[in-house]
Design a protein that fits this description.
Blueprint: H1 6-25, E1 36-37, H2 45-56, E2 60-71, E3 81-82, E4 86-93, E5 97-103, E6 110-116, E7 120-125, E8 136-141, H3 147-150, H4 158-167, H5 169-173, H6 176-183, E9 194-205, E10 217-230, E11 236-245, E12 251-258, E13 264-270, E14 273-276, E15 282-285, E16 287-292, E17 297-303, E18 310-311, E19 330-332, H7 333-341
Parallel strand pairs: 1-10, 8-19
Antiparallel strand pairs: 2-3, 2-4, 2-17, 2-18, 4-5, 5-6, 6-7, 7-8, 9-10, 10-11, 11-12, 12-13, 13-16, 14-15, 16-17
Length: 354
């Protein structure tokens, strides 16, 4: 009835072959890359207390360090400006005293000096990269938020604002106490604070690792230790959060410090620990990175010569009060804040020389 043709036979052959071809294209099992889950160690809350208190035993540090600064003013746009790493000398002493000198590498000329006695701070901007017209001596209070003043820098002329932002605003936003919080840790205080332990697993990606390394993309476990303060009305507010790396031992990896509203003031990341001082009896984080979200900057500190670090020496109070021996123009930030609140218009947070 039907006449067979070559085309019809070929079509029937394809129809019979199609399921076989289709089956051959479908893989029963597909391989998908997932982060490597790292094994974790166990520890009770007392072990976490001991890790913090060990670092809190250090009463003073005098060290040469590498300091690098990153301006995150444009972080909302996905941009950050990193400045050249500088040499620095840091002296910190409990409860909240600090002397910081930032120097030009190799030459050794001071770029800036700053001190704080825990209540007030002084900053001398000695080199600005703009011929000296922005050199200033700043005075202020540790607990005061001067963001109202620093915002006026953005309103300056386009010819000057870039220079100020890069060479002056970096140091005017830095506060000495930001360093003391990171380097001189407060001990655990179970009498005045409540501590709560929890766990978290965080996905981490190491761009420096080999692309084929199983440790390039991992799931790392942490203990979180939250410190809460009880207010007079019975409410609890978080004051600090410690992150303890649980991989290969229990190590303090991070400290977050919160303000009265529960916002992060300082986000401090600690690198690997190692022996410091001449005897090497102290093991401290050899790298400390401090991020200040409100001031929009990040600072990284790395010990320059671990064995030359002086630990435990006591310094007089006068060592942490910077004097204006350079006869720089003084800028009283508290006075300018008062003028702003009273409706006056201060020139700027950083006044230009005439």
């Amino acid at each position: 009835m039907f006449k067979s043709t070559p085309n019809l036979k070929f079509g029937i052959f394809l129809l019979l072959l199609f399921p076989v071809l289709l089956t051959g294209c479908i893989k029963v099992k597909t391989q998908q890359t997932t982060p490597t889950l790292l094994s974790v160690d166990e520890a009770d809350q007392g072990v976490l207390y001991n890790r913090v208190n060990y670092l809190a035993k250090v009463n003073s540090i005098n060290a040469k360090m590498y300091l690098s600064f990153e301006d995150n003013s444009y972080a909302e746009s996905g941009l950050a400006e990193k400045y050249t790493t500088a040499d620095s000398t840091i002296v910190v002493q409990r409860p909240a005293n600090i002397l910081l000198k930032v120097e030009v590498p190799i030459i050794g000329t001071d770029i800036a000096q700053m001190t704080s006695n825990g209540e007030s701070f002084r900053v001398a901007i000695l080199e600005d990269g703009a011929g000296g017209k922005y050199k200033k001596f700043l005075l202020g209070s540790n607990k005061t938020d001067y963001s109202m003043l620093t915002e006026t820098l953005d309103n300056l002329g386009s010819n000057d604002s870039k220079e100020i932002k890069k060479n002056v605003n970096a140091f005017s936003n830095m506060r000495p106490q930001h360093f003391t919080d990171a380097m001189l840790m407060r001990p655990i205080d179970t009498e005045n604070f409540l501590y709560i332990r929890s766990t978290i697993t965080q996905e981490e990606f190491d761009i420096k690792a080999d692309k084929k390394s199983p440790l390039r993309w991992v799931l790392r476990g942490y203990y979180l230790l939250d410190e809460h303060k009880k207010l007079d009305n019975g409410d609890l507010v978080i004051t600090r959060r410690f992150w303890f790396d649980r991989v290969g031992g229990i190590k303090l990896a991070r400290q977050q410090i919160f303000d009265a509203n529960g916002e992060i003031e300082s986000d401090i990341v600690y690198g690997k620990t190692g022996p410091v001082s001449e005897t090497g009896e102290y093991k401290l984080p050899l790298e400390v990175e401090v991020t200040r979200p409100k001031e929009k900057y990040k600072i990284k500190l790395i010990y320059k010569a671990e064995r030359s670090v002086k630990i435990g020496k006591e310094y007089p109070a006068t060592a942490f009060i910077l004097e204006n021996t350079w006869n720089l123009q003084e800028v009283d930030l508290d006075k300018q804040m008062l003028e702003r609140k009273n409706g006056s218009s201060p020139q700027t947070s950083i006044n230009k020389n005439d």
